[in-house]
Design goal:
Blueprint: H1 4-7, H2 13-23, E1 28-29, H3 41-52, H4 65-79, E2 88-91, H5 93-105, E3 111-116, H6 120-128, E4 132-137, H7 146-151, E5 157-163, H8 175-188, E6 191-195, E7 217-222, E8 235-238, H9 241-254, H10 260-269, H11 275-293, E9 306-310, H12 315-324, E10 327-328, E11 330-331, E12 341-345, H13 350-362
Parallel strand pairs: 1-10, 3-4, 3-5, 5-6, 6-7
Antiparallel strand pairs: 2-8, 7-8, 9-12, 11-12
Helix pairs in contact: 3-10, 4-10, 5-6, 5-9, 11-13
The structure holds pyridoxal-5'-phosphate.
């Protein structure tokens, strides 16, 4: 009755925790990104004006022309990605974007490599497409273990999904790591799917787009969290020319086109300066690190919004303690086979962060 591929998938534990938060009175919810600011007023007005201006119908499957051009310019100037406008597809959300990609490229039992820990959806969407996720460990400092990566490549390896800056870890991959990875992929003719959605929120390091040195790459990027518009669901992907023709079919028959008024608003979003937001997140990162560092083993995140903290004692006991105190965190084993850490989101208001830190410190 049920598809074997779907049976292999799990439910989303991050969403479960999020839903659990709505049933607890006054919880301290550090599970997901919940910023203390909204979509900038100017961008809200753009969306409202587009609605009032009768821009409420289908757009062409890929985009509206002005948005396509604005994205093309952004990619060239900021990412050194030089592509034609017809190599970009605007779509909704990562789940749709990745579904288009994976449905276009995968056959049954193809292998897709993921670094462990991985963003949960990657695994589930690979399974949904009847393919096999293959895991590669990261090094103890969370950098990429490229020797292990090469050792896991087989004749069935079709693609690798990478994510920099990385969720769930706190890492931004270096240019050297990404160049070495690209060389290995070139040797074995592997497609890279590069999720770069957090590129705007890096602190001390800088972002490197792997497309700039390896063209057999599909780059995914978005507006969602950058502008606090997660529900507006606008994403874009740029594809190698030789496969985008096939991807059109998947986009056309599944997702049609992204919401029109929000596409218009996103043209303006690309011009919007985010430095104040980044500075505010950086202050939160520094505060959280300072407050927890005496009692916990914690790495200083290289980007917003998450940090990983080592369990001070047995994970089950610790999570139980958190729940008894209405504190919601995300256990690492949602993203991995192992369970040494828990994830907290510091995209939250300062008062909530203070309550959370006081509680956490009282547990050890
Ligand atoms: N990719 C990564 C690495 C993420 O962390 C997230 C969301 O948390 C997404 C994709 C999902 O983006 P969206 O909710 O816009 O589909």
């Amino acid at each position: 009755m049920i598809s074997k591929n779907i049976e292999k998938m799990d439910v989303s534990w991050v969403r479960k925790m999020f839903e659990m938060a709505s049933s607890i009175e006054n919880p301290i919810n550090l599970t997901i990104w919940k910023p203390d600011f909204d979509v900038p007023e100017q961008l809200k007005k753009e969306a409202i004006n587009a609605i009032l201006d009768w821009k409420n119908q289908y757009t062409p499957n890929a985009w509206i022309l002005r948005l396509r051009k604005a994205i093309q310019t952004k990619l060239k100037n900021e990412n050194n990605i030089k592509i034609d406008t017809d190599e970009i597809i605007v779509t909704w959300a990562v789940s749709w974007g990745l579904s288009v990609i994976l449905t276009t490229i995968l056959n049954k039992e193809d292998e897709v490599i993921l670094f462990d820990p991985y963003f949960v959806w990657y695994k589930q969407l690979v399974l949904q497409n009847g393919a096999v996720p293959v895991y590669v460990n990261v090094n103890s400092d969370f950098s990429l273990d490229l020797k292990e990566f090469e050792s896991k490549i087989t004749t069935k390896t079709k693609a690798i999904i990478i994510n920099t800056p990385n969720n769930p870890t706190w890492k931004v991959y270096t240019e050297w790591e990404l160049k070495t990875l690209a060389n290995i992929c070139e040797k074995h003719n592997i497609l890279i799917i590069s999720d770069e959605i957090y590129e705007k929120f890096i602190y001390e390091k800088s972002h490197f787009s792997i497309w700039s040195i390896y063209k057999n790459t599909i780059t995914l990027n978005w507006f969602s969290k950058a502008y606090a518009m997660t529900w507006w669901r606008i994403w874009y992907m740029c594809w190698p020319k030789n496969i985008i023709e096939q991807a059109w079919k998947v986009q056309q028959f599944n997702f049609v086109s992204a919401p029109t008024p929000f596409q218009y608003a996103c043209i303006k979003a690309l011009e919007f300066d985010l430095s104040d937001y980044v500075e505010k997140y950086k202050q939160k990162r520094d505060i959280i690190f300072k407050w927890l560092n005496d009692y916990y083993e914690i790495n200083k995140s290289e980007w917003a919004f998450y940090c990983f903290v080592k369990y001070p004692y047995e994970p089950k006991k610790f999570i139980k303690k958190c729940l008894e105190n209405k504190l919601l965190i995300v256990p690492w084993d949602i993203f991995s086979d192992k369970n040494e850490f828990f994830r907290i989101s510091f995209a939250n208001d300062n008062q909530t962060l203070k309550r959370a830190v006081n509680l956490l410190n009282s547990f050890v």
